[in-house]
Amino acid sequence: MGSSQSKPQPEQSNLVVAYKRLVTLILILLLLGIIGIRYFDILPQMSGKGLQLEHPRFINVLAMVKAQWLSVNRPQQLSLNWVVTAGDDSHPAPVVVTMDAGGWPLPQSRNNQGCQLLWWQLLGSHLDSEDLVVVYVSDSRLCRYQSVSGEAILYHLDSGGVNFLTKGH
Predict the structure, then answer these.
(1) What distance lies between CA 141 and its chain's CA centroid?
(2) N-term to C-term CA, the chain
(3) Contact indicator for 122, 105 with CB cutoff of 8 Å
(4) 63: which residues sit within 8 A by CB, 6+ positions away?
(5) Could you tell me the pTM of the whole model?
(6) Residues 6+ apart with CB under 8 A from 75
(7) Positive or negative, the Cα torsion across 160, 166, 168, 169?
(8) What does the longest C-alpha to C-alpha distance in the chain come to?
(9) Which DSSP letter does residue 108 get?
């Protein structure tokens, strides 16, 4: 008879298991919350690093475009030797850019959309407005590609020069 009192009741056993699961779930959610907060704190810095990596790529593409432009007798419009896909469209589209007399590509229109299209034509990626802000600066005649963390690539349309600005400059 004494042995029947030492056995836990099935209801108590189920409560203990449910309590352990609840504590485990709370700990997992707490851990995910901490990881999520750290991820979202680092996210703006990561977009700046991405733009920092795009800077040399942008310069290299401009050099390739100029070399191709020189090799085909300096046309006003240049059909580039690469193809980019237009978003969801599975059919690749040829890339044709307007060229300056000095041999650097120009946007089709001198506005934010023209600068955004030029980025797509040269680098093959669409810009997400949450990651990069594209601004055509008419006073300086440049396209400014700026990350949410403050870094920016400046593409000077008069000279073909490219600058990378860090946060605060």
Answers:
(1) 24
(2) 83
(3) yes
(4) none
(5) 0.67
(6) 69, 99
(7) negative
(8) 104
(9) S
Tell the residue number behind the tokens 């690749």, with chain if given: 92
pLDDT tens by residue, 81-98: 776 655 555 556 678 999
Contacts of 123 (CB under 8 A, 6+ apart): 54, 57, 58, 61
Structure tokens at 156: 């000077």
Rounded to 5 degrees, φ, ψ at 161 are -75, 150
Q: Hey, what are 132's tokens? A: 């990069």
CB contact at 8 A, 106 and 97:
yes
Structure letter (DSSP) for residue 110: S
Beta bridge partners of 144: 135, 154
Instruction: Quote the pLDDT of residue 86.
Output: 56
Q: How far apart are CA 75 and CA 147, in angstroms?
A: 33
**Which residues make Cβ contacts (< 8 Å) with residue 150, sequence separation at least 6?**
48, 166, 167, 168
